[in-house]
Structure to design on (368 residues):
């Protein structure tokens, strides 16, 4: 600890030391850290916090560029940890609920499978449900709506026009509903195929595994429907929460 | 004494640093000063959380200043003590001084020292 009154800055950096115009990439702090901070920090604090960090980064960079970069990353992570619950609490809860659902589903599959979890995996069934449902949703809405929907999952922004939320909600509803219909449709295809190929000799061997694979499409479609239902409800909540605030 | 006027240790330190730095009290300076003076290396996030809390309590007032090249064109946020902040700081110091009266930490530690010896 210093006995003398400390100086406010150890190695001050003036504007004359820097090149004119935007800073070159070599003088920029780590981009990922900056993006993370911009994502997590409240809007009012972005300017002072990012500015302070950049200023200190440039000072530290004069002594050791590698250490300065690590210092910036460390500061970005510690700062994000401070503000994560404050600014992204709702988002974290939403993601946690989805992960919890997926985790519990995998756990139940593991409990019910005698051999391995692979009995719940079938690539053709996955390919039938997910990409097709996504294409239907983009086809019935638009690519922009799909981009907005993905952006909403990462950052549910309140305060946008009601039409914006309606379109995103519609997008999620179409994915879920078309996924469900596709699940039933492909299951029916499977049932027809089983019914046509089954006979008295191969009944025990063919019926069980074939029906199992056939029902996987239905399983995937209900999983997709559940997730998109939650996403659509989240959109609805964010939109209604904003309209309640505006009314007040 | 009204209870809501008491401040925590970090709040106390930050108000003092803002006083020390006068018109140069902004995030990076405050953080560096605190680290140099008392060896407390706060993250910028923890610093702003506390500064914001002090602002909400009305003990500090913040204003956006100039944007400079070394900050990537971003503005500084300067902090200044309010009259209420000075009063809270004074009250906190008086309370601590009062509690410190008659306390000799080093001697009381030495008195406890023989108790740590194990019996042979």
């Amino acid at each position: 600890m210093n006995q003398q009154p400390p100086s406010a800055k150890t190695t001050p950096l003036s504007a004359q030391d820097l090149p004119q115009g935007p800073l070159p990439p070599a003088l920029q702090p780590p981009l990922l850290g900056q993006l993370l901070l911009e994502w997590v920090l409240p809007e009012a604090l972005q300017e002072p916090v990012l500015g302070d960090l950049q200023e200190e980064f440039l000072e530290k960079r004069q002594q050791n560029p590698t250490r300065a970069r690590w210092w910036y990353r460390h500061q970005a992570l510690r700062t994000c940890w401070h503000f994560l619950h404050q600014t992204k609490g709702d988002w974290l809860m939403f993601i946690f609920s989805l992960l919890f659902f997926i985790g519990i589903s995998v756990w139940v599959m593991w409990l019910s499978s005698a051999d391995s979890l692979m009995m719940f995996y079938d690539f053709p069934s996955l390919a039938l449900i997910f990409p097709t449902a996504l294409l239907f949703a983009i086809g019935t809405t638009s690519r922009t709506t799909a981009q907005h929907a993905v952006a909403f999952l990462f950052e549910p922004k309140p305060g946008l026009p009601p039409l914006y939320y309606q379109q995103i909600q519609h997008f999620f509803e179409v994915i879920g509903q078309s996924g469900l219909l596709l699940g039933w449709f492909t299951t029916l295809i499977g049932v027809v195929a089983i019914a046509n190929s089954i006979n008295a000799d191969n009944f025990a061997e063919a019926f069980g595994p074939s029906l199992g694979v056939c029902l996987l499409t239905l399983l995937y479609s209900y999983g997709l429907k559940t997730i998109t239902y939650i996403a659509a409800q989240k959109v609805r909540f964010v939109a209604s929460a904003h309209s309640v605030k505006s009314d007040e | 004494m009204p209870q809501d006027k008491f401040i925590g240790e970090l709040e106390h330190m930050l108000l003092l640093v803002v006083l020390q730095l006068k018109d140069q009290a902004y995030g990076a300076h405050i953080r560096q000063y605190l680290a140099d003076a008392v060896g407390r290396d706060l993250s910028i996030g923890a610093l702003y959380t506390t500064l914001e809390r002090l602002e909400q309590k009305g003990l500090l007032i913040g204003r956006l200043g100039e944007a400079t090249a070394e900050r990537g064109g971003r503005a500084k946020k300067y902090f200044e003590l309010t009259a209420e902040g000075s009063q809270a700081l004074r009250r906190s110091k008086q309370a601590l001084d009062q509690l410190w009266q008659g306390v000799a930490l080093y001697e009381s530690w030495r008195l406890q020292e023989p108790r740590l010896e194990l019996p042979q």
About this structure: The interface with chain A takes residues 20-21, 24, 26-29, 31-33, 36-39, 43-46, 48-49, 52, 64, 67-72, 74-77 of chain B (CB under 8 Å).
